[in-house]
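This section describes the prediction task in plain terms. A model, or a person checking by hand, is given the sequence of a single protein chain and must write out its three-dimensional structure as a string of tokens. No templates, partner chains or ligands are provided. The sample shown here is typical of the held-out split.
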Amino acid sequence: MSSDEISIRVEGLGKRYEIYSSPRERLKQFILPPIQRVIGRDVVAHYKEHWALRDISFEIKKGEAFGIVGRNGSGKSTLLQIITGTLAPTVGNVTTKGRIAALLELGSGFNPEFSGRENVYLNAMLLGMTREQVDERFDKIAAFADIGDYLEQPVKTYSSGMLVRLAFAVQVQIDPDILIVDEALAVGDALFQKRCFARIEKLLSDGVTLLFVSHDQESVRTLTHRAILLRGGQEVLTGSSSEVLLSYRKLLHEEESSYFSRLAPKQTTASNGSKKPAASNSANKGTSLPGRSDNLSFGDGGIEVTAVQTFDADGETCAVFYPGDPVKIRVRCHSIITTDRINVSIRIRSREGIKIYSWGTLNQDMQVLNGALGGEVFWTREIQENEDFDVWFECSCTLGPNLYEIQAAISYEGKPDYTEQRILHWKDEAAFFQTLMRQNEYAFGGMTDLRMKAMW
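The expected answer:
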């Protein structure tokens, strides 16, 4: 790849911190090593090394949207600080091309004693704009921030949401070549977030490079093309956003299973004296699901999604639907344990990776248990060892024309309210279907049909 096409290049990046047990050890480290070198003795370190980042390498093309995901403490913010130049790496190199606008920490670059107006000028001029350029764009900045009379008040009186409004408004008006956003938008209200994402999409269409950090997986999936997953300061995977997010969900599941395995008993015993394997213990046993794809699924095991298919109103397999058509989805499962408290669910995503809908047997059970609906409760049904069973989901097609993915999941629910959930098997790309539209019969715009009516 030509170097002219690269906006950000990170090569062998590492950041090391020296951790001292006491001020005395820090003083020893300052005084003793030079003396030891002079007299020819081996140098003794009086600190412990902590690598916040180690051996990180990737390239981001101009105009590309790139995501960084990982748990708290994985090194995301450290990486962004090094890329923006506010932190020096211990090893490795970072090369950037163009003006960088970074929204890293709330209030960074603002003087709390200055008013919002004064901070706009201060922040914008620190980012390379002249006073005349700020004058020209001030009205746009103020309109985007939309904080009213607070613009004339000291920043120390602002809420966190107001701070990020003002900071983002300044950053996007300096015509950046690279925009870096680190979780700051999470403190904004829904309307402001919508406005920010619309502005980010406009910048991307203008060829701006985006480096985006968020714990909101749907935002990362929607906004970015590629991503990197960090764990303990090291790279786990770099690839398409969908691949990285699936690995991230697997990582979260593994760590959650490890946590609960230390808390949960190794077995629960049924009242008849027979031992009933609890879903929460399958991680302890190292249960694996035979024949499952490690690339597209994960879970503690015990019950497996073996097949997912879509059918029409006549019960025939069908993968193309029109508005108003009945849709039937069959999830076929196989159990190798005896247990109850099971939830079988599906999630529907568009071709763009946007979650359209998610629903499961527990959603219906909750209605039955609350008296809003009649019928049996699936959650209390006991699934037998070596049992094969089907769960059918039925609805009327209300989706706009697109290609849709069905994800299927089986979970153990300690309580019938989704508060104690353990994933036994999650399967991406379990099935696909397409929706089309007969324009001369019935048509609508958008992702879903609200069945709207007009009256006059």
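For orientation: The chain has two domains: 3-226, 287-435.
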